[in-house]
Amino acid sequence: MEQKIKQKNIFNDIKDIGVIWVMDEAAKLGFYNGNEEWANLGQGEPEVGELKDGSARILEFNIESNDDRYGPTNGTNELRKTIADYYNRLYRKDKASQYTANNVSIAMGGRMALTRIFNSIGAIRLGYKVPEYPAYEDMLNYQLNRITPVCIPTKKENNHSIPSAEFAQAIAEYDLNAFLLSNPCNPTGHVIKGEELNAYVRSSKEKNCTLIIDEMYSHFIYDNENPSGSGVSSAEFVTDVNLDSVLIVDGLTKSFRYPGWRLAWILGPEHIIEKLGRAASAIDGGPSVPIQRVALQLFEPQSVDKETKALREVFSRKQNIMLKSLRENGVICSSDANSTFYIWADISKLPSPINYSNSFFKEALKHKVITVPGYMFDIHPGKEQKDSEFNQYIRFSFGPTEENIQMGLKRITQLIKSYS
Q1: Out of 32, 154, 184, 282, which could bridge 339 as a Cys pair, Cβ 3.0 to 4.6 Å?
Q2: 114 with 102: CB under 8 angstroms?
Q3: CATH 3.90.1150.10 occupies which residues in the chain?
Q4: pLDDT tens-digit profile of 97-131?
Q5: What does the pLDDT look like over 279-289, one tens digit per residue?
Q6: Does domain 67-298 have CATH number 3.40.640.10?
């Protein structure tokens, strides 16, 4: 008689994170991308169609014979130079130190860009604050043998940001070698800019602490302080592009509204970019050649400026629509949310049980509306999460079309009223 051999499970238990888990839960009830019966107020991508007065969308391109070859692990020189010129034009006019192609590393998406960084740094203490982008936790969980994540306390009255006056003190107090943050922040919509951002860059240099800044939402700025073609970037305050230890991560995903292209970049000192290219040879092998080539046209100055102006007009309108509806329904929304396409909403004043994020999320699903519970942004790499200070928060997205948002807000109103 043949004896059966029990196979040993050699794989770790890997859980869905944040929005992925949310979408899986919605899918169990019939949701799928493109299902017009659902309002996806949880989505982490912007609407991708052509905007009113925006630049024309790229719908097709030819693949050339050389596109079939392997490309450089740090990206093609042409795209690297184009991105360097883009930052110099928007943020470094008249500055002596300018970015070049050697200051740019191209990767297939923001997660891949960050993975290259995390795999390239040694045994350090890495500071961060909460709430913050959930994927950071999962990426850092694979690096705990070298990286010690340190959560820096913040206050609600500061929209859970660290004031620049306290940043240098935090670096010293917690003995940090590096600090990771999303700016503009996912999920709070808080943006550090102007002299405040300048102080961050200056403090990091003075304290010898590397800044790793995720600037994926850099164009989603809703104020009158920025010219139509620029957003907010720490690149403006770097003194010497090859001496200041500032790593900027951005991409086509959000500001250019091409999430499916999976193209991102890292901007930083030449010697670090060189190391990231070597790390890429082992991690991902380098970015897609044809996607890099077609992306070149997106950085044409007139096209960028036109698209950014249209983006702000459209998304600012959607933000105002969502803020008005949520506030009328008793949801507390920060007055300090001037960026991204998210609203960080305090639901503590809503009737029980929908004043608790998981209950709100589940009840909203019954109305075919997707949201993201706030506790998912309470990240603590390497530690088991038992309770969260953000259990009474929801992240709402105004990334979808205005029509879809209006439908979702109407259903949210019905949900809240049904408990009043």
Answers
A1: 184
A2: no
A3: 18-51+304-418
A4: 999 999 999 999 999 999 999 999 999 999 999 99
A5: 999 999 999 99
A6: yes
